[in-house]
Amino acid sequence: MAETAHVPRSPGRVVVAGASMGGLRAAEQLRAAGWTGAITVIGDEPHMPYNRPPLSKDVLAGTASFESLAFTPRASAADVEWRLGTTVTSARLDERVVGLDDGTELAFDGLVVATGMRPRKLRCDGPSGPGSGRHTVRTLADARGLRDELTRPGVRVVVIGAGFIGCEVAATAKGLGVGEVTVVDPEPLPMLRPLGELLARSLHRRHEERGVRFALGAGVAGFEGEDRVTGVVLTDGTVLAADVVVESVGSVANTEWLDGNGLDLSDGVLTDEQLRVGGHPNVVAVGDVARFPNARYDGVPRRVEHWSIPTDSAKHAAKSLVAHLAGSVAQPAPFAPLPTFWSDQHEFRLQSFGAPALGIADVRVLDGHPEGDVLVGYHRDDRLVGVVALGGPAATTGAARYRAQLLARPALIS
Amino acid sequence: MKVVVDMNKCQDHGQCVFSAPDVFQLDDTGRLAYVSDPDDALRDEVEEAADVCPLQAIRIEA
Fold this sequence. Notes:
The structure holds two protein chains of two kinds.
Chain A: E1 13-17, H1 21-32, E2 38-43, H2 58-61, H3 66-69, E3 81-84, E4 88-92, E5 97-100, E6 105-107, E7 110-113, E8 117-119, E9 134-135, H4 140-150, E10 156-160, H5 164-175, E11 180-185, H6 192-195, H7 197-209, E12 213-216, E13 220-224, E14 231-234, E15 239-241, E16 244-247, E17 251-253, E18 269-270, E19 276-277, E20 280-285, E21 290-292, E22 302-303, H8 308-325, E23 340-345, E24 348-354, E25 363-368, E26 374-380, E27 383-391, H9 393-401, H10 403-408
Parallel strand pairs in A: 1-2, 1-7, 2-3, 7-20, 9-16, 10-11, 10-16, 11-12, 18-21
Antiparallel strand pairs in A: 4-5, 5-6, 8-17, 13-14, 14-15, 19-20, 21-22, 23-24, 24-27, 25-26, 26-27
Helix pairs in contact in A: 1-8
Chain B: E1 2-5, H1 15-19, E2 24-26, E3 32-34, H2 43-52, E4 58-61
Antiparallel strand pairs in B: 1-4, 2-3
Function (chain B): Ferredoxins are iron-sulfur proteins that transfer electrons in a wide variety of metabolic reactions.
Keywords (chain B): 3Fe-4S, Electron transport, Iron, Iron-sulfur, Metal-binding, Transport
Pfam families (chain B): Fer4_13 (PF13370)
């Protein structure tokens, strides 16, 4: 056996737990921030990272191939090691090691928590599991499975939950020619909590005009059927006949693997304003699993499930982590992203900048009319904290005009 | 640096315009126009624009 001097791993390894958009962006941004050591990304799906928003729209409609969804990693991240089809099952942060589902352990110098969310599922009586007709939409496999069922002739669809995914799925199903699409939600209007009453009412009308039915103000008591769902029983006693059920009732953070480290995992993983986790400067979190304070608003830690957040948080977290690993004590400015989201439903688009949910008590029409293209401002303490456009391209362009104003606003609480 | 936008994918979200305003613009009708051979000094901006494109329609070649 050849004599080899002990060479310390230099400059070490960063493990990225999670291989969706946040994991990919973290790997790329570690390189951009100057990290020259090893990077290993662990992901439980068999696919390289791909773009999820088309799952409830173009993939469901059959107009997007997987190839068109796959992200192309930056050239600077070409030497990243991808371990796909592998789940991170445990972590001992003090010992700097994570455990994998194949029984092996992997040592790290830095760790990026990017394990994201999974759909919440209703726990009530009735059929469940594969083949039961109950679906969620989070992964490519989910979307493909649902599409196969939506294209069966005469299928009756009940969507549970009138949030982003539920409304998009309902619109896409209508576009596919499904005759009966009913959306169930305990709130009196779709998307009421993220958008407030004015836009929620406008959305409701637009969906109804395009043939989507609603059962609002009612929850789900159970499902009818033996092996396969045949109906949805509502809390008010109504039974909706259903061949396919789509559950879009929120999501659960994938943080169980972090148990036992004394972290606050009550809703995602709590971070500080540098996206560092639980007093471990070599552990950062990115994407929708991170519950972070946003210095732009009130400093209250929140998870943000918007598409822009994985990219924004990866950039900040990578800088924070690389600075620590390089021994720097300099503090970057606190993370203060401007959240943005969009949603395409039927032929119209919602486009949002800022944090409308924080200004839901003071909603003002800035331009247009709720019956057509409309631009709405959300205010808190008389300050504009978010804008949402609903309608065609003109409305979207109008929203963009306010972006600089939203960015320029000083923090509400200094 | 060569920039290619797949105009079949592009849905005029305009996110790229915020990241790299010297390279990407929305015209008066809200459609995207862009510089296909921007100066290499703009590479960081263009990479960011490609990252934030909701349709992942922006490709950077060489």
